[in-house]
Design brief:
The complex is a heterodimer of chains A (408) and B (361). By secondary structure, chain A is of the alpha/beta class. Chain A has 15 helices and 13 strands. Chain B is globular and about 65 Å long. The chains are: A alpha/beta (408), B mainly alpha (361). At the A-B interface, α9 and α13 of A face α4 of B.
């Protein structure tokens, strides 16, 4: 026993040494990292051009000091390099970036239109192989150059990357992470769709030091500074990994209905009584079932959509407390949703001829034997298939009012 | 007897579960899906069946030779020379399993979490820890594992529960798209892993109650089979059939967990599972080699062999393959045939000969 006691201090010392030296080999100090929040990829004669938004940690600190009209420091640094592969471009970045480039916090990845048309597979592999890149990174496609899109900032968030990430999460259009993109590109009967992101003029920042809006002032004073914010403006549709076309924001809503990705949204239906008036309904819940049928010759799909929403705005004066009128409104809602879906369907079937709706997946699940022959030419089969859409829409609440106070 | 300690039934079951799922946990779904695609779960059921066959052999051999380990009873069955030869082959087989596991553990840590640390540094640390445990005997290892296994199981359950929002059961359809041949081919690797419970024949004499043996192997195989099944189903429901392109699908799965921007980046949990499980597995097989070698050489104590065999183990772990692709290629190619002949075919022959000889007398 006494012998053991003699060892005690020694063991204690050893343990302390171990604790102190843990992780030394692979330590990564925060001050040695260049944290990337956004990555953009464009085509380039040399191969690819990689653009990254690097955080400047110095600018993020001391939030209080930054207010009060002092000149703001720039939060981010946008820097690009070219290379034959994405990884080479990343290596080239090291010539300019004095710290270790850290991908663990990359929020968004933006693909430029030109490289999207050439094919995504050439550039996405790095992001699914490299252990430090996260498969939860949001992926966008932008018309024009990704490089230009990344040269932006956000009014509400610290960076435009965070703003775009939040936008993806709020699911106005499709929301796609790297892992989803990988599944869309590789699972049988599925083609990728990516949300389209671009910079649009978005309001006028106001504050001390900004131009002010003085009515009747000369032109210089009258124009306020214009801000460009990253904006979701639709969807890019891909055939396998090549961009074939765009859906606008209305068609994107149809796409979201057909792909069963509705989380929330707004549907505007025409008023029942007055021609140019409308009623707004907020969608609270939506789900879609797609059932494929094949009789050896023809393929058709039965799509049944279920929607639930709240009536939140009325321009006209229908009495919504009357069940008959309420029923008619629900029918109008169903029609409006169907019209949205049809609009999108026509575009992907007739114009693009690409199954962007995952209908092929449903077909593969039900007819695995036929898929073996038809899978190779699925897009052709899809574009000639007929689709029956039935919508079951319900309005649950009417906000804080029942029927509207009538006009005097 | 070389080993003074005894382990009870629960400890034996825990050991079996840990040393089988430790290997399988990270890479199993990908390897099986490479052949069977979204029908990988059927392959795992098939593998459990094969595992039950191995379990049957273990029980039979265990009841014939309750006081002897594998290295000892091969001599009994085949005579001294042939028995010694087979015993040595088995020791090499176990050495190989331990080295392979050591390599996989250190390789994974090296690749994903500690890229700048040399591979051999991680291997040496794990092996030294193993050597220290072995010095204290089987009972200590069994007790350590009694702490580790619940942690491992809880972590796996935790991860897969949080993954439920990412899962879609539709991804498992269409069922039976892969042909029976592919499904059978996919079941070979998991079968070879479950078959590793054949190593239990090395510790049968140290069981507290030998008649519990049947219950122990049955429980272990079923538990492991269930874990395999759930992991595979979970991964396919999360990633569809693209898991066949992933080296560590469970790691990928843990990385996409995100519960309201609050619980995310859970891969350290994977590290906990992998390090503890890997340690137990390496140490268990390391122990078996050390003990078996001592019995093979008829030494009075196995302890002097610990460090020299450890050196061989670490060197072999570096030598088994140049890179992860070589290791994966071996795993999904020749490994199951190689392993299953040691786990199923040779034991079956041994059993047959033993039964015949018993009747002869």
């Amino acid at each position: 026993m006494s012998k053991n006691k003699a060892y005690c201090p020694l063991v204690f010392l050893l343990v302390i040494c171990c604790l102190l030296s843990a992780g030394c080999w692979d330590r990564e100090e925060l001050s040695d990292l260049a944290i990337i929040l956004a990555a953009g990829i464009d085509a380039d004669p040399a191969g690819v051009e990689l653009t990254v938004q690097v955080v400047r940690p110095a600018a993020f600190g001391g939030g209080a000091e930054r207010q009060g009209g002092q000149a703001q420091e720039n939060d981010i640094w946008v820097v690009s390099e070219k290379g034959r592969t994405v990884y080479e471009a990343r290596r080239m970045l090291k010539k300019k970036v004095p710290r270790q480039i850290y991908w663990g916090h990359n929020i968004i990845m933006v693909v430029g239109e030109d490289i999207a048309r050439e094919g995504l597979r050439n550039v996405t592999n790095f992001f699914s192989r490299f252990p430090r890149a996260r498969e939860t990174t949001w992926v966008f496609v932008t018309p024009g150059k990704a490089k230009e899109l990344l040269k932006s900032h956000s009014q509400l968030e610290d960076t435009s990357a965070q703003a775009a990430g939040n936008m993806a999460r709020s699911a106005i259009g499709v929301a796609v992470m790297l892992k989803d993109l990988k599944m869309m590109a590789n699972v049988k009967g599925s083609n990728p769709v990516l949300p389209r992101l671009e910079l649009t003029p978005s309001g006028a920042p106001q504050g001390i030091g900004e131009y002010e809006n003085i009515p009747g002032g000369d032109e210089q004073q009258f124009i306020t500074k214009i801000h460009a914010e990253t904006t979701t403006t639709g969807t890019g549709v891909f055939d396998d990994d090549k961009l074939v076309g765009w859906l606008d924001i209305g068609e994107t809503r149809g796409l979201v209905w057909l792909r069963d990705e509705v989380e929330k949204g707004t549907v505007i239906i025409p008023s029942l009584t007055e021609a140019d008036k409308r009623t707004s309904i907020e969608i609270k819940k939506g789900s879609t079932e797609v059932e494929p049928f094949y009789d050896g010759q023809n393929i058709w799909f039965d799509v049944s959509i279920k929607a639930e929403g709240d009536l939140l705005e009325q321009q006209s004066f229908e009495d919504v407390t009357d069940p008959k009128i309420f029923d008619k409104m629900e029918q109008a809602l169903a029609q409006a949703i169907e019209a949205r879906a049809r609009e999108c369907l026509e575009k992907v079937q007739d114009e693009f001829g690409v199954d962007a709706l995952d209908f092929g997946k449903a077909f593969h699940r039900k007819y695995k034997k036929d898929w073996a022959q038809m899978g190779g030419k699925w897009n052709e089969h899809f574009s000639t298939a007929s689709v029956n859409i039935s919508v079951d829409a319900e309005i649950r609440h009417t906000g804080l009012e029942s029927k509207r106070a009538p006009k005097e | 007897m070389l080993e003074g300690g005894k382990i009870d039934g629960r400890q034996a079951v825990y050991l079996c579960i840990t040393f089988v799922i430790a290997t399988a946990l990270l890479s199993l779904p990908g390897i099986v899906a490479a052949h069977a695609k979204q029908d990988a779960w059927i392959s795992s059921l098939l593998a459990t069946m094969i595992g039950l066959a191995v379990a049957g052999i273990v029980v039979k051999l265990g009841s014939l030779f309750p006081q002897q380990t594998l290295v000892e009873f091969t001599e009994e069955i085949l005579g001294t020379w042939l028995g010694k030869l087979l015993g040595l082959t088995y020791l090499l087989f176990f050495l190989y399993i331990a080295a392979f596991m050591l390599r996989e553990t250190s390789s994974f840590l090296n690749e994903i979490f500690l890229p700048k640390t040399p591979l051999i540094a991680i291997a040496i640390i794990i092996a030294l820890l193993g050597a220290y445990t072995i010095k204290h005997g089987l009972e200590v290892l069994a007790r350590v594992n009694q702490i580790f296994l619940p942690v491992i199981v809880a972590s796996v359950i935790f991860i897969f529960l949080l993954l439920i929002p990412e899962m879609d059961p539709k991804r498992l359809a269409p069922v039976l798209e892969a042909g029976p041949q592919d499904i059978a081919r996919g079941s070979l690797v998991p079968a070879a892993w479950i078959g590793e419970i054949f190593a239990l024949t090395m510790v049968v004499p140290f069981l507290l109650k030998k008649r519990e043996l049947g219950e122990i192997v049955l429980k272990s195989v079923l538990a492991v089979g269930t874990v395999f099944l759930l992991i595979i189903i979970g991964c396919i429901a999360t990633f569809d059939s693209i898991i066949e392109f992933m080296i560590y699908p469970v790691l990928n799965a843990s990385r996409i967990i995100n519960v309201s921007e609050f619980i995310d980046r859970l891969e350290p949990i994977i590290m906990v599972i992998w390090v503890t499980g890997g340690f137990v597995k390496v140490t268990f097989f390391y122990y078996i080699i050390v003990l078996g070698s001592a019995q093979w050489l008829r030494l009075k104590s196995y302890r002097p062999l610990t460090l020299p065999l450890g050196v061989i183990l670490v060197s072999l772990s570096i030598l088994v393959g140049d890179n992860i692709l070589e290791i994966l290629h071996f795993l999904s190619g020749p490994f199951p045939f190689f392993a299953l002949s040691f786990e199923l075919l040779i034991p079956l022959l041994l059993l047959a000969i033993a039964l015949v000889r018993k009747r002869w007398k």
